[in-house]
């Protein structure tokens, strides 16, 4: 057997770890020693935190731990997270859609989650929140962003519409 200018008898060309003849099987040289692929993976490859199998190509690091891309999934919907934006809560990773549906505050007007993505701003008043474009007078629909407003039960009103309260 020959590899990079070195020669071995066929029976001497063995895996450094398991001592089995490599023959014509695939092998991986490391530090002037040769390893069969399973032994190399057991000894040197990182192990996926989720499935405990070796990571031979690619992979993802999350919380300083290695994962296969196929194993790094949203805790809720099980969609693959590698290559997309995600966030976490209590060390569990979530796609943004699941995170918003599960944990984000809901707009008092349209009831959809307020994600805050892309630096989008929102208004918060007495335990309620609104998207900027939803913070409008209940009667005349004028935007109340940056303006004074009045409240009537759960409604917000501009000063003009609220003057008869």
Structural class: alpha+beta
Q: How would you characterize the largest beta sheet?
A: 2 strands, antiparallel
Percent strand: 25-35%
CATH superfamily of the largest domain: Cysteine Rich Protein
CATH architecture of the largest domain: Ribbon
CATH class of the largest domain: Mainly Beta
What is the spatial order of strands in the main beta sheet?
1-2
Low-confidence stretches: none
Tell how many strands the DSSP assignment holds.
14
Organism: Ilyodon furcidens
Protein name: Four and a half LIM domains protein 2
Keywords: LIM domain, Metal-binding, Repeat, Zinc
Pfam families: LIM (PF00412)
Q: What does the model show?
A:
The chain has 165 residues and is of the alpha+beta class. The chain has three domains: 43 residues, Cysteine Rich Protein (Ribbon); 57 residues, Cysteine Rich Protein, CATH 2.10.110.10; 58 residues, Cysteine Rich Protein (Ribbon), CATH 2.10.110.10. Helix content is 12%, strand content 27%. It has three helices and 14 strands. The strands form seven sheets. A two-stranded antiparallel ribbon has the order 1-2. The chain has a two-stranded antiparallel ribbon with strand order 3-4. Strands 5-6 form a two-stranded antiparallel sheet. The longest helix has 8 residues. It starts with a strand and ends with a helix. InterPro entries: Znf_LIM (IPR001781). Keywords: LIM domain, Metal-binding, Repeat, Zinc. This is Four and a half LIM domains protein 2.
């Amino acid at each position: 057997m020959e590899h990079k200018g070195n020669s071995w008898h066929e029976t001497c060309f063995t895996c450094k770890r398991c001592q089995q003849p490599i023959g014509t099987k695939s092998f991986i040289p490391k530090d002037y020693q040769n390893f069969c692929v399973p032994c190399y993976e057991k000894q040197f490859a990182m192990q996926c935190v989720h499935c405990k199998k070796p990571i031979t190509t690619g992979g993802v690091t999350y919380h300083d731990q290695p994962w296969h891309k196929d194993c790094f999934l949203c805790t809720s919907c099980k969609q693959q997270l590698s290559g997309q934006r995600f966030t976490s809560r209590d060390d569990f990773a979530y796609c943004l859609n699941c995170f918003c549906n599960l944990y984000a505050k809901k707009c008092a007007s349209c009831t959809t989650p307020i994600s805050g993505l892309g630096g989008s701003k929102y208004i918060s008043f007495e335990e309620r929140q609104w998207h900027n474009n939803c913070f409008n007078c209940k009667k005349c629909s004028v935007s109340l962003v940056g303006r004074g407003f009045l409240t009537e039960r759960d409604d917000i009103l501009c000063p003009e519409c609220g003057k008869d309260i």
